[in-house]
Specification:
Radius of gyration: 21 Å
Shape: globular
Number of strands: 12
Structural class: alpha/beta
Number of domains: 2
Oligomer: single chain
CATH topology of the largest domain: Rossmann fold
């Protein structure tokens, strides 16, 4: 198949999880024989931080204005098998119209931010998707499973809303030798988000303050300058994806925190969650509905109810038990959440949509 994708970013992972997701999925699809074209608008914060300027698994068109790139968009769509528009694509409204007008065999939307998108649709629109555009897609891929999929179908008219969760790339996520540079007792990787900050204070900063002899590392950009960090917290502004395995494998535990909208929706695992598990890290996570469908608490993941419980992990759990939980999580994601698995799910869903379109040509 030829797949044309309109996405937020693939060349830069700075401050976004979209790039990691696209890289893993599209690499796996290319390895399975598909040709992929990716459109990305040039934006300053990505331009200055491109850690994969020329992905080897797809053709990337970086453009400055939609009108400038429109002739190429139309040429690529003219002979594609799948036209796929991603959430937060800066010219999403225009790209969706072009996909609809070009009439590829399968027209898809890939929502990497489903709870945020649906909340905006309830209010009238997002900057990248209008409510009246939702029924035009043959398939609506969603990072979120559970009840939100039914709302997309029943309230907004999605023909088929199916989960296509994030994944991890076996090539980049793996066991790595511990690094002295990132050695710590508890790590956290995440861009600043106001709605996560209270949980970060509880599960990360409070244990750090109360356990001054322990070492903590926080990696991620955009934190306000006035945030006060405990003295035993080391800050890393940005960590390239190639360094993630070393980061995770050098932590006794790593923390996963979920955005407010994702917690409310449930069934919204993050890229970092699967990535850390793929590296064999022992994960400490906040709680949300559906988490147990991805990892079994206490056996494959730790789900504390308080800062005190995090402190007990740090002070009372022995190395053998910590390793056992990390390895169990790794085995789970190897079996169920690799990018190869997601690529096969994508193929199956696209194949089903093509069959439906051929039966009901009026919906194609």
């Amino acid at each position: 198949m030829k797949i044309v994708v309109f996405g937020l970013a693939i060349t830069s992972s700075w401050g976004n999880g979209h790039a990691t997701t696209y890289r893993a999925l599209l690499r796996a699809l290319r390895n399975r024989g598909h040709d992929i074209v990716f459109f990305e608008r040039d934006q300053e914060w990505y331009t200055s931080n491109r850690d994969m300027p020329k992905p080897p698994f797809c053709t990337v068109h970086i453009y400055e204005t939609w009108q400038e790139v429109l002739p190429r968009v139309r040429r690529e769509l003219a002979d594609c098998d799948v036209g796929l528009v991603g959430s937060y694509f800066p010219d999403g409204l225009e790209a969706i119209d072009e996909v609809f007008d070009s009439g590829p065999p399968v027209k898809g939307f890939y929502d990497i931010d489903t709870p945020i998108t649906v909340a905006a649709l309830r209010a009238g629109k997002t900057d990248y998707l209008l409510p009246q555009q939702v029924p035009g897609f043959d398939i609506y891929f969603s990072f979120t499973g559970g009840p939100l999929l039914r709302e997309l179908e029943q309230k907004f008219g999605a023909r088929r809303a199916v989960p296509l969760y994030c994944s991890f790339d076996r090539q980049s996520c793996r066991l790595s030798a511990p690094s002295r540079e990132y050695a710590c007792d508890l790590s956290y990787m995440g861009t600043y988000a106001p709605d996560r900050q209270a949980k970060l204070e509880e599960f990360f900063c409070e244990p750090a303050e109360r356990l001054p002899q322990k070492r903590f590392i926080l990696a991620g950009p955009q934190y306000p300058a006035d945030v006060k960090w405990p003295g035993n917290v080391r800050r890393v502004i940005h960590l390239e994806p190639k360094l993630h395995p070393s980061f995770y494998c050098s932590s006794r535990f790593t923390l996963n925190l979920t955005r407010k909208e994702m917690v409310a929706a449930g069934y919204s695992p993050s890229v970092r969650l699967f990535e850390a598990a793929g590296c064999g890290a022992t994960i400490v996570s906040d709680s949300w509905q559906g988490l147990e469908t991805f990892f079994t608490p206490r056996e494959e993941i730790l789900v504390p109810s308080s800062a005190g419980e995090v402190m007990r992990y740090l002070t009372e759990m022995n190395a053998e038990e910590i390793r056992r939980i990390g390895r169990a999580a790794q085995q789970r994601v190897l079996a169920e959440h690799s990018c190869e698995q997601r690529a096969m799910e994508f193929e199956n869903e696209v194949g089903s949509s093509r069959e439906i379109c051929s039966i009901c040509p009026a919906t194609a």
